[in-house]
Amino acid sequence: MSIQLKLTLPDWLSAYLEDGPRFYETPAARMSLAIELAARNVLANTGGPFGAAVFDQRSGLLAGVGVNLVMASGLSLAHAEMLAISIAQQRLGQINLGADGGRWQLVSSAEPCSMCLGGIHWSGVKSVLLSARDEDVRAIGFDEGNKPPNWETALQSMGVNVTRDMLRAESCAVLQAYAQRGGIIYNAGKLGAR
Amino acid sequence: MSIQLKLTLPDWLSAYLEDGPRFYETPAARMSLAIELAARNVLANTGGPFGAAVFDQRSGLLAGVGVNLVMASGLSLAHAEMLAISIAQQRLGQINLGADGGRWQLVSSAEPCSMCLGGIHWSGVKSVLLSARDEDVRAIGFDEGNKPPNWETALQSMGVNVTRDMLRAESCAVLQAYAQRGGIIYNAGKLGAR
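The joint structure predicted for all components is written out below.
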């Protein structure tokens, strides 16, 4: 018997990829989608206030989606960026999202935590759009882990284009809504036996 | 239709968990297992020269196993530590591996890359045993990403016990064997369209 690691996206999230191809032509439209995913994740009670997606930079084709599913899946790796990257890799049959002249772009409603920062490195993506800042995420209580202070320039020195603060107020509004609903801030080592 | 992220362990690896409970009582026995997994992964051609496992610190019960399955799975997150942590969380039904007085221990045949370092943070484990050094892994060509220079003390300040250099020569021998076989060094952004 083979052991499988299984992670199922909620139906509402799967629909973005299953209901025919969707295109998001402008950077703002792509970030709006990432923030929309974060907001829907909060409303649907499927997890933390974070959303991410992978797009073809040229056509705007949506190739991967992710939200924070840590509590729903029981897996601490189930962050929005990790899922969006993995779903895109699985659907495209391609590990290196930086192939074809850096074709694929990761868009996230918040700056990456320590794990997702490394996940971005390994995915090979050459373009990253980010919204809420690390400090915004920490302000509602999440512990993002120990990140290299030079993370932005380090990504840039690897040839990754980084754009920050896109629609930051909109993403912060979702973070605030989550905090006000009393959403779980499931920090590392701070949960009970689940 | 729900989209699933799927990752299947090779049969030889699943057997460690499926063939009844196994116990590894000493730290050296646990590290020997992690290195054995790395070596078998190389011989079985299932991936890179890295192995990891999660144990109950008290009884030595094996709760999770992982090897590098990046090429086999097509997912860049499929590192040994990420899988060992995830499989343990899935089997135990418990996200926080630091619960019960820091019960679960992660043992890895090599020091964590930038992604796994964050993965360790989020798993909540309070004890980590490591073998080959970051520099040993880079010496055969892997780009481990941009890690905070103070990663060891940062983990310790979060209450994580870190033991390094355990059976380092044995783990390095596996790294060397992989390099000599011409194993793929699939660095970020350096693969073709797969």
